[in-house]
Amino acid sequence: MALPQYRKQLLSLKSPQLDDLFEAYALVAEALETLNMQVPEQPERLAEYRDICASIQTEVLSLLRECNGA
What we know:
The model has no long low-confidence stretch (mean pLDDT 91). The chain is an all-alpha fold. It has helices spanning 7-12, 16-37, 43-67. This is Nodulation protein.
């Protein structure tokens, strides 16, 4: 699980926006796992999917801060 230090906070929030981000992250993480197993490797696509995962994590943290009034 990404962002384990925020797990309790994230589980306590009810947000359609967060739900959408979680779903998107799950899909991208699954695709990334599949890409990691492919031969030959596709380093450009791997980097792209890692960047997408990082962007989603950043969005989740931003929403978490908004919900906590920061």
